[in-house]
Write a structure and sequence with these properties.
The chain is 41% helix and 15% strand. The protein is α+β, with helices and mostly antiparallel strands and 375 residues long. The protein starts with 12 loop residues before the first helix and ends in a 12-residue tail after the last helix. The chain binds a DNA duplex (10 and 10 nucleotides) through helix 6 and helix 8.
Length: 375
DNA sequence: TTCCAGGTTG
DNA sequence: CAACCTGGAA
């Protein structure tokens, strides 16, 4: 009695038990065999959770295997140069994750004797470890009864309890954490968290969820009401600003001039073709000559236009206009860059190149990784 | 071609 | 609250 329609109801203890048992049984039978599910090593589980932030499983797998083959433990990662870490992260995106993970590995070695801290406060304090990653690693690797609320879990819970709050708000997340907490079977939080994530990734999909295959069946309140595709509440996405960039292909004896972006901010620490934003009312060749002169100290003769490449970042989209350039002088990086290198074909995997650089080089016929000519 | 999903940081 | 990337689906 006293039922209100303000917020969805919390499950009582027996409902919660039935739901979590159904989820665990389904997960044991249906879970995908993923590399990070074959280990109990907290380091490997941590690396996986960082890579899986904002990134799909299928994309992560090859990166994960290469990364752990090269850095099998936290000491190996701590000893490495950031350049090499970023090279292994090349193409995975959100490079701040790699910079933070590398810095965190060094902190673990300096402050925790090379042992990943299982103390929630200490682990959560490492750079790149937020509420989700802390909950995931602490529950999966250390067996602690912690909630791990990621996008998949939020979607599952919004539907299961027909929660019409926006999970991006503090209030919405608090509500979802209460549901997740109510479901956690003591001692099996890691398994339940993974079951919820697996359900979100394989059955309870953002669009066209596969409800007939769902182990929660008629317990799902949104499905019972036929509103599963309206949960979580839709988010609108505004137009991304459009920018115009120019970039130079400078070749010397078969090598290509590349520059390294400063370690902070967009694509920090990654290598790219020299170039930058075109000013309002500026001609492309003038813009390119200006950038090469001001930030590299090079006098450039801008030649033919070679191609235009489109790319979308998190908060804007660009068209990059590529020009062949001849230059005089030795590059002296400044401004957006802190290094340069004449890139040979064998360097394409050893330097962390930006996605748009890979796209540009592929378009120009260079055998970069990921391009048809490069495999 | 366009749209969308997704954790942490400063 | 804006910055931060890419790939997969519509």
């Amino acid at each position: 009695m006293g039922e209100t329609n303000e917020a969805a109801l919390q499950p009582n203890a027996s409902e919660a038990l039935a739901l979590s048992q159904a989820l665990l049984a389904w997960y044991r039978a249906q879970r995908r065999d993923l590399p990070w599910r074959r280990t109990s090593d907290p380091y490997r589980i941590w690396v996986a959770e960082i890579m899986l932030q904002q990134t799909q499983v299928a994309t992560v797998i090859p990166y994960y295997e290469r990364f752990l083959a090269r850095f099998p433990d936290v000491q190996a990662l701590a000893k490495a140069e950031l350049d090499e870490v970023l090279a292994l992260w090349q193409g995975l995106g959100y490079y701040g994750r790699a910079r933070n993970l590398h810095a965190a590995a060094r902190l673990v070695c300096e402050r925790h004797g090379g042992i990943i801290p299982s103390n929630p406060h200490e682990f959560r304090s490492l750079p790149g470890v937020g509420p989700y990653t802390a909950g995931a690693v602490l529950s999966i690797a250390f067996g602690q009864d912690e909630v791990a609320l990621d996008g998949n879990v939020a979607r599952v819970l919004c539907r299961l309890f027909n929660d019409d709050q926006d999970p991006r708000t503090a209030k919405g997340r608090k509500e979802l954490r209460r549901y997740a907490q109510a479901l956690l079977p003591p001692g099996q939080a890691g398994e339940l968290n993974q079951a919820l994530m697996e359900l979100g990734a394989t059955i309870c999909l953002p669009r066209a969820p596969r409800c007939p295959a769902c182990p929660l069946g008629v317990s799902c309140r949104a499905r019972s009401l036929g509103v599963q595709e309206e949960r979580p509440v839709a988010k609108r996405r505004g137009e991304l600003p459009r920018r115009e960039w120019v970039a130079a292909l400078v070749e010397d004896e078969g090598k290509i001039l590349a520059v390294r972006r400063r370690p902070q901010g967009l694509l920090g620490g990654l290598w790219e073709l020299p170039g930058g934003e075109v000013l309002p009312d500026e001609e492309h060749p003038q813009a390119l000559a200006r950038i090469l002169r001001v930030h590299l100290g090079l006098e450039a003769a801008v030649g033919e236009q070679l191609a235009t490449v489109r790319h979308a970042y998190s908060h804007f989209q660009v068209k990059v206009h590529l020009y062949r350039c001849a230059v005089r002088g030795t590059p002296t990086p400044s401004g957006p860059w802190d290094g340069f290198h004449w890139l040979a074909s064998e360097d394409y995997n050893a330097y962390g190149l930006t996605g748009v650089t890979l796209k540009a080089l592929a378009r120009l016929g260079f055998a970069v990784p990921g391009s048809p000519a490069g495999s």
